[in-house]
Specification:
Elements lengths: L11 H8 L6 H9 L8 H12 L2 H6 L2 H5 L6 H24 L6 H12 L6 E7 L5 E9 L9 H10 L4 E7 L9 H15 L4 E8 L6 E2 H4 L3
Parallel strand pairs: 3-4
Antiparallel strand pairs: 1-2, 1-3, 4-5
Amino acid sequence: MAINHWPAQERPRERLLAHGAGKLSDAELLAIFLRVGVRGKSAVDLARDLLKHFGSLNSLFAAQATEFASIHGMGDAKYAQLQAVLELARRALREEMAQGDALSSPRVVRDYLRLAIGSLPYEVFMVLLLDAQNRILVAEELFRGTLTQTSVYPREVVKLALRHNAAGAILAHNHPSGVAEPSRADEALTQSLKQALALVDVKVLDHFIVAGAAAPLSFAEKGLL
């Protein structure tokens, strides 16, 4: 049955307006984005199919266009809409980080990193550069690797920091395996970057490992800086 035939109090859009987005399930929120279903399936049914196929919202958000379009009822237009929504969310978080002290708002930094790189199927290395008041100047993906590793060159990180006249840096990379524990290579890289950036008076404030939907691991909190 189409959603517009449901009782008003059960329709996702009406429930959101009455009770707030936080009261809706993942499928209901996704159904509002989809707007319509396909023959024999409501938008909520289609949303449930998407979540079942991809396994999680994170995996859905990270899907490539071809995989997304392989689902009946999906296509390039819906994929473009989804990517636009995700980019708006990332930009909103970047704005929030830029307006305040990143160290006093660690939730915002963690949320941004999870949304930016948490569900990628390959490793990436990001650098968030900060000014003297710990406001974010730029968040940039510098290196991209494979499923299990990526090569990071300290010289390029230093060049980026100098280009933006940064006072501090937050490092981040993801573990597509879903395990956020740091390796010895991760620890060695952190110390190498810390030493290289210290030569140009840029302080490494933290290094996050992002693994799926779990809270990113903080080197600072683990005493690894």
